């Protein structure tokens, strides 16, 4: 028995050998580009790099300055607001739309295309479009007042207290369709026999979705969560196109802080420290997901 296992291991090693060899350049590129430059960034975050990177180590000084910066703290606060709203609302909207399309309605392909179309646009285009839509002179406020509601006021992009909710509206318009497609693919993978069994038992459709279908979609939900969260952490172009961080610094986000420090203020050390914190945030999300998805399966 032990001998057969020993013979089986080399055979597994050389299985699909050509595909494994073809993947070597991609693996090496990923190791050099992603891992190598990530380590390089972390190392230089402990230096006093200015216009050019240099190994002039100053310990944790850049991190102390980072967490004493009002601009950075506001960007973190905005990221929490933006991320919380996006995770909750995009999943709710995406799941509801996926459930509606899963009823195999007429012209499903047309509706699916319309709902997914915003995701094909760049965030810059989305930001500019919603900058116009939320402009009080000719946007939503102007249209509603033109109908006759003269007292209606809706100008989130010029109000520092609610400006991030204006950014959330644009992000939801673009991203909810993507979440819908991922969840719809998961719904289409559910066996029809489950639906038949719940109908025979007289279980209402909403209870079937909530107590039967949602638990079965856990892997799809987790994967979608990781993709959406990674996009939230690095949000930049949408904010720049829509508000440019304004009014004042009310809509600053970490990615914009990194860009401003590295290219406008010519303070690479501070930019490296901020980007390292962003990398740490993504790692906190990715590592548990990878452990749950792959480590659990391997143990099973």
TrEMBL record:
Membrane-topology descriptor: Multi-pass membrane protein
PROSITE patterns: ABC_TM1
Domain annotation ABC transmembrane type-1: ranges: 76-291
Upper classification of the organism: Bacteria, Pseudomonadati, Pseudomonadota, Alphaproteobacteria, Rhodobacterales
Species for this entry: Paracoccus aestuariivivens
Primary location class: membrane
Descriptive protein name: ABC transporter permease subunit
Keywords tagged on the record: Cell membrane, Membrane, Transmembrane, Transmembrane helix, Transport
GO cellular component: plasma membrane
InterPro entries: ABC_transporter_permease (IPR051393), MetI-like (IPR000515), MetI-like_sf (IPR035906)
Domain of life, source organism: Bacteria
Transmembrane segment boundaries: 21-43, 79-101, 113-133, 162-187, 208-233, 272-292
Classification via PANTHER family: ABC TRANSPORTER PERMEASE PROTEIN (PTHR30193:SF42)
Annotated localization: Cell membrane
Family: Belongs to the binding-protein-dependent transport system permease family.
GO BP of this protein: transmembrane transport
């Amino acid at each position: 028995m032990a001998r057969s296992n020993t013979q089986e291991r080399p055979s597994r090693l050389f299985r699909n050998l050509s595909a494994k060899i073809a993947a070597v350049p991609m693996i090496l590129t990923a190791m050099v580009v992603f891992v190598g430059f990530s380590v390089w960034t972390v190392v230089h975050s402990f230096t006093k790099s200015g216009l050019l990177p240099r190994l002039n180590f100053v310990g944790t000084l850049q991190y102390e300055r980072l967490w004493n910066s009002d601009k950075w703290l506001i960007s973190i606060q905005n990221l929490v607001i933006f991320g919380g709203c996006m995770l909750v609302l995009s999943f709710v909207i995406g799941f509801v739309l996926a459930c509606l399309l899963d009823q195999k309605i007429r012209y499903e392909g047309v509706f699916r295309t319309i709902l997914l179309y915003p995701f094909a646009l760049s965030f810059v285009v989305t930001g500019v479009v919603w900058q116009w839509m939320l402009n009080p002179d000719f946007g939503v406020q102007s249209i509603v007042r033109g109908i006759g509601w003269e007292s209606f006021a809706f100008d989130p992009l010029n109000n520092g207290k609610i400006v991030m909710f204006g950014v959330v509206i644009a992000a939801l318009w673009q991203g909810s369709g993507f979440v819908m497609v991922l969840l719809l693919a998961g719904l289409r993978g559910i066996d029809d026999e489950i639906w038949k069994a719940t109908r025979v038992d007289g279980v209402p459709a909403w209870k079937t979705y909530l107590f039967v279908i949602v638990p079965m979609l856990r892997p799809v939900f987790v994967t979608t969560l990781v993709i959406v969260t990674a996009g939230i952490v690095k949000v930049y172009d949408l904010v720049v196109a829509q508000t440019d961080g304004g009014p004042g610094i009310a809509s600053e986000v970490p990615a914009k802080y990194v860009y401003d420090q590295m290219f406008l203020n010519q303070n690479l050390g501070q930019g490296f420290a901020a980007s390292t914190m962003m990398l740490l945030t993504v790692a906190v999300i990715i590592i548990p997901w990878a452990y749950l998805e792959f480590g659990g399966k391997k143990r099973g």
